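Homework help board

Subject: predicted structure for assignment chain

Our instructor gave us this sequence and asked us to write out the predicted structure in token form, then describe one feature. I got the tokens but I'm not sure how to describe them. Can anyone check?
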Amino acid sequence: MLFGSVETKVERPDPAVPSIKIDEEVFNKIMHWINKSDYEVSGLGKIKFIDGNFRVTSAILLEQENTSAHIEIKPQTICKAMFLLKDAPGHLNWWWHSHVNMGVFWSGTDTGTIAEIGKCGWVLATVLNKKREMKSVYYQKGSEKTPRVFMNDLPTNVDIKIDETKKAEWDKEYEAKV
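My token output:
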């Protein structure tokens, strides 16, 4: 257990466990930044909670100083991100960062950051790498009456949208050739 919390590891699809869908454009933008850097990069994003699942709808890259295993972000940078995303729909409760070429896991620094961001309620966090691997967690601060929650390994997918006119073209080509 992390943070003296309740940890749930999701090993199979469970309708009671929320999943995370990252909009394709948001994912592509983040992967572009990750692939561009030899160091960890980090940002925030907005999410919506729809039908019991999380949907990531926007992301922003934060001003930061980076090393291969550490990111330094100043508090005023968070305030700037809040201002820049103020008109985007959803809640600014998503923290994403990269592990460059390492695996996706929660380091001690990561879990500390998650607890710090989530101390005002809750946070959804995703760690990604250049291999396009992802790992996500839901963290909720505890109270005197409720335990902290660290729901690890949430199913995380990119929501790929295909233009219906393209699908019709592809169907026509399939019918003609197969």
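Reply (TA_rk): Your tokens look well-formed. For the description, you could write something like this. The first helix runs from residue 24 to 36. That's the kind of observation they're looking for.
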